[in-house]
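In this supplementary section we document a worked example of the pipeline. Step one takes a protein sequence of length 239 as its only input; no multiple sequence alignment statistics are reported here. Step two produces a three-dimensional model, which step three serialises into structure tokens for compact storage. The input and output of this example are shown verbatim.
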Amino acid sequence: MTEARIYNVYCDESCHLEHDGVPVMAWGAVYCPTDAIRAVTDNIRALKSAYGMASSFEAKWTKVSPAKKDFYLALIDLFLADDRLRFRGLVVPDKGLLDHARFDQSHDDWYYKMYFTMLSKIFCAPHRYRIYLDVKDTRGGPKTRKLHDVLANSLYDFSRESIERVQQVRSHESELLQLADLLIGALTYANRGLASSPAKTAIIARLQEALGPDALTRTSTFAATKFNILHWRPRETAG
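The serialised model returned by step three reads:
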């Protein structure tokens, strides 16, 4: 029998608003056994120190620049080399194709469905999960509770034994959430076909070199467990 473990799952999203003028939207999660979080966090902080940054420096996609390119490439290498770290993402290539009225749902309804679709690949009995979301806005509390309800009910986990918690954290307090932001940023950048930043393009190239040339722009195979993404299109699901 498989021994039950607890996993921390750090989630973030990019361009998730319905009318923000960006066609691509993405969700993603970095997940890791809870008993490894301290060691991984220490390793990332040591990496920051090695590149002359304070341990409190908040790594994120919007801060990728030529001056910090080597640090961010090293952070990508750390993720790729550590078997305890995995990533799951979901990309909507063109949200202009969404037709919520057809399915009698709001954008918020669909948002929660996509979160479950993204996370369901991670969940596996008998393990338990603690899910952490980046603090975004004042609606975060109700959205967090709603997401916990959706995830637990979809798994028939009415006693909250599998999905132990869903709570907000501030990204500057969590190195794993910062890593999730970086990978989701790379995922969105690649799917938008952008190449204006040499530093960001270098990160895309490093991921493609390690994972395959289409790893960020096509649905992953079932066997791809280190970095697994779903390219979602309206015709692929009823919701």
